[in-house]
Amino acid sequence: MSRQQLGKLRKSEPLKGKGYTVSNEEGTTSVGEVAESQLSQDEEIAEIEKLLGEDPDDFQARCRLGELYFSKGRLDDALAEVKKAIEVAESLRVEMDRSLAMYYSNLGTIYGTKEMTEDALPQFKRALELNAYDVLALFNMGRLHSDRKEYMQAKECLERLIEVTPEDPVAWYNLAGVYEQLDNPQVSDYNTLDMALQAYMKVLEFDPTHLECSFKLMEISLSVNKTDLAITVMEEAVEHNPDEPLAYYNLINTYEKCKLFEKAEETRQRLKQRFAKRAREASTT
Fold first, then answer.
1. Is residue 93 domain-resident?
2. What's the pLDDT score for residue 153?
3. What is the mean pLDDT of the chain?
4. From 15, 103, 142, 164, which residue has the greatest number of CB atoms within 10 Å?
5. How many domains does the chain have?
């Protein structure tokens, strides 16, 4: 196809709130006015090239330069500039989408906090349309679906969240709870208890002090006859939470269920001694 058949490139429109100026004898001229100025095309090209050396992401300048190259028959240069302009525009669009997704997530969070779940869901969905990995939208939407007992939808959101934040114990804890619910035959036909167990272990990998997770992992371990794991989990819970009586009580209970009565008694004595010492220290201060 010839250049005559192609016609002229569409003239770029100035971006609101952003643009560049070129200097001439009469002062400064905006992009929208530059075609009507007294500058020759070669002078204008030189000015724009200089400006792009200082601000290579000026979308409007690149569009105008592409037009000028095209009108001068510099088709390879025009092609390169238009491609660069598209790259800049795409980058701006991605940034805008991410920012807009954040605001939709915030809006959904406000609705959710006000318990207006029917209004919250569309906001999270829109946020994820703009940014499929918006952390706040994935987390809150997963929680919302879980609260509504829509566990498959919650699973999808939280698994995507883990892809983005693989070391977040809160994300793993919520996903573990969803896996645990899906293992219930009255909820689904999925066998996800082992997945729940693995997810709870991930929580403790990133947050060893998470007591509630330790308790849940201990209970699941006992339910599937993994007594060694249950004992290890609770022993580590006491180690990481030495001032928490509930950790000791659950370790004692675990020992007794595993018929390790001597260890249960030893732990009971440790508990008494530790908190008797704390009581004495408190009374002397």
1. no
2. 96
3. 85
4. 142
5. 2
Average pLDDT over residues 27-50: 65
Residue count of the chain:
285
In a domain? residue 117: no
Using a 10 angstrom Cβ sphere, with 0-12 exposed, 13-18 middle and 19 or more buried, the burial of residue 62 is buried
Q: What is the average pLDDT across 61-81?
A: 86
Q: Of 73, 98, 125, which residue constitutes the final position of a domain?
A: 73
Buried b / exposed e over 220-259, threshold 16 CB at 10 Å, is bbbeeebeebbbebbbbbbebbeeeeebbebbbbbbeeee
* CATH classification of the domain holding 226: 1.25.40.10
Domain boundaries, position 44? 3-73
**Domain termination site, one of 42, 73, 104:** 73
Does 21 score more than 50 pLDDT? no
Residue 39 lies in a domain: yes
Confidence of residue 149 (pLDDT cuts 50, 70, 90): very high
Percent of the chain with pLDDT over 70: 83
